[in-house]
Design a protein that fits this description.
binds adenosine-5'-triphosphate; Alpha-Beta Plaits; Rossmann fold; alpha/beta; binds magnesium ion; 10 helices
Length: 308
């Protein structure tokens, strides 16, 4: 799939002198769900705001479907919907008017059928005549999404859409995001929740201290996650791995006192049973066996900690 958003060498230094984005380059593929994971203050909101043309970059460029977000702001902005992290609704306005108004802001002709379908999709139709101040926090978040969808954007940015909402709402939100993707909308969301990224993203990006540390297919990350290590402590240290065991790609550890076997838990055969019988045949006796697994959380924590 071609990239619908291209971010090149984006830098943002705020007026106070803080450099929040450091030469960020990123391609967002048409039709994908990309999750940006990162700790507080990593630069997620700054990145999204700059892509949406709300924050001016210090240097670098962003194009949305070929439109530069600074030089060609209106055309780029029309293609984008943004659900901000902070709830910023007009308290005494009715839900339906809030959504209609938002459509008008982008120069779109009034279309009550579209507004109705957006409100229905977000289970807000029954609340259309309520004032936004009367809604619960979760419903207000849905109104923000409805507003962002009012002008039929092709790319939707959700800045922490499920922060502080309950489990049911989170699942509803994931369902909504998947439906939007099925309708052809490209989705970028930021989150602190690793399981959220696991549940819905096609690709996962990790951002820390203003830098993108990794962008990778979720499936390949999960395969890494599926990788397990088995540590085999030996009774007697060995100087080299016997030739008869060369097929297992064992690594010597602790000066030959232990062997490390890496295997894939998702593979049909882990090779463990055969390894044990081959170890015995090679005359090696085991003192202890331990397994460990790298999780996405560990990968994430290590990535974010490194270089601090
Ligand atoms: N308007 C601003 N002026 C000065 N510094 C800012 C401004 N907005 C953000 N920053 C700083 O830039 C850094 C990145 O902030 P940003 O809001 O992009 O992080 P974030 O990844 O969205 O964090 P969170 O997970 O808490 O939402 C932070 O150190 C923040 O203090
Ligand atoms: Mg933020």
């Amino acid at each position: 799939m071609p990239d619908i958003v291209s971010v090149r060498d984006l830098d943002k230094t705020y007026a106070g002198g803080f450099r929040a984005l450091k030469s960020v380059s990123l391609g967002i593929r048409q039709g994908e769900i990309l999750a940006l994971l990162g700790p507080n203050g990593a630069g997620k909101t700054t990145l999204i705001s700059t892509i949406c043309g709300i924050t001016t970059p210090t240097s670098g460029s962003v194009e949305v479907a070929g439109h530069d977000v600074v030089r060609d702001y209106r055309a780029a902005r029309q293609l984008i919907g943004l659900v901000p992290q902070e709830i910023n609704l007009e308290p005494f306005e009715k839900v339906i008017n809030t959504v209609r108004f938002s459509r008008g802001l982008f120069g779109r002709r009034r279309d009550d059928a579209h507004v109705e379908s957006v409100l229905r999709q977000l289970s807000l139709w029954d609340k259309r005549d309520s004032k936004t101040v009367e809604l619960s926090g979760g419903m207000k978040r849905r109104v923000l999404i409805a507003k962002a969808l009012a002008h039929e954007p092709r790319v939707l940015f959700l800045d922490e859409p499920t922060a502080g909402v309950d489990v049911d709402f989170r699942r509803d939100m994931w369902e909504t995001v998947r439906r939007l993707q099925a309708d052809g909308v490209t989705i970028i969301l930021t989150t602190h929740y690793i399981e959220e990224a696991e549940a819905i993203a096609d690709r996962i990006g990790v951002i820390a201290r203003g830098e993108i540390l990794l962008v990778e297919e979720k499936d390949s990350l999960m395969r890494r996650l599926g990788r397990k290590e088995m540590r085999l402590d030996l009774h007697e240290p060995i100087a080299a791995v016997p030739d008869s065991l060369s097929g297992y790609k064992l690594q010597r550890s602790d000066e030959g006192g232990a062997l490390i076997y890496t295997y894939d838990t998702s593979a049909e055969r882990t090779g463990i049973a055969r390894l044990f019988s081959d170890l015995t045949a090679a005359g090696l006796r085991l003192r202890d066996v331990q397994t460990s697994q790298s999780s996405l959380e560990e990968i994430f924590v290590d990535l974010v900690r490194d270089g601090q």
